[in-house]
Amino acid sequence: MEQSILKKYAELLVFAGGNVQKGQPVVISGNVADADFVRMVQDAAYDAGASDVSIDWQDDTVTRTTYLRAADHIFEMYPDWRVDRFKFYDERGAVYLHISSSDPDLLAGVNPERIKTLTKVSRQKLKPHSALTMSNALRWSVLAVPSPKWAAKVFPNLPQEQAIAKLWQAILKAARADGENPIAAWQKHRENFTERKNFLNAKQFDKLHFTNKLGTDLLVGMPKNHVWVGGGDVGKDGIPFFPNIPTEELFTAPNRNAVNGKVVASMPLSYQGNLITDFAITFKDGRAVEYSAKNNEEILKNIIEMDDGSHYLGEVALVANSSPISQMGILFYNTLFDENASSHLALGKAYPDCVQGGSTMNDEELLKAGINDSLMHVDFMFGTADMQIVGIATDGTETLLMQNGEFAF
Ligand code: ZN
Ligand code: ZN
Asked: Which residues surround ligand 2, an ion (CB under 5 A)?
């Protein structure tokens, strides 16, 4: 890939994604295999005026070996020094930038108990940190670069070099980073969401009714004063940022206790190196009461049964079937991309700013407002080319919001 394009992509992450301000510390997490790009992002962060840039290096091979060979009890602990490291940067108001490139099959064949145990303990220990990011008290952003294994998974019939080149192309296109001025393209992208967002926020639907031929028939109750978010976010300090590059979704939090019916997934869910396929979940008064999957039902079980909150929904997101990512027709095996190809739901924690005043509410107040809490937040796709969505007002009047997968308002 051309250096000038990579430089623009790195700058997109820093200036638009995290929107790094003068004097701010920056923490970048990235793979050792992507060192050149990580260093480019570091440079861009200093160009933006960062006071200091720390790199949290990851290594897929080391991670996999640890999961396969470490002693059982290792997965029951998460070291305090890691928690302190986050605390040190959180207290200084750092911007967190993530560069994702992982092999979708990284943890395939690893004992799911190990993954489940470590996920739970690390999320418990890092709850204060994730509360800050999820309430937009800290800015963060994630984008992706290809790795040979990821490229081979997405394009299994191409020789390695071609597969990587093709994945780069797809990533940059999806990320609107293949043009002259990606940062300007993203400003425009943000503005395009405004009208629909304002419409939905003004309407304050009581329920959304999702149906399609795949078998989804789901009523999603909405909390009072819910807020639709899309085309980026705004930090508590008023500074705009884009948590996800790409992003094509309009989303909010459902009322955790008012979801009823059945949802059938329209795409497989790639979760920590395992692919859950052909799955469906039935909800009663918000709670997942029944579920099944053709492959890896055990992994789906681990997600849903992680804690009480993981039985409930924390996100409902609308994506048009004509979104550039959907039109590419590529399964990326990476939620960052796949969630932008299709309307989706998430099991687990909701973003507090999806209800008015949510970012200043405590856990109890959020729960009372119908906003779900969990250690998990796992997106799964259920949008299809024939998806229909009807918004139902408190007085029962209906508004068609989506027909044949396209926005109808
Ligand atoms: Zn989403
Ligand atoms: Zn999500």
From this structure: 315, 346, 379
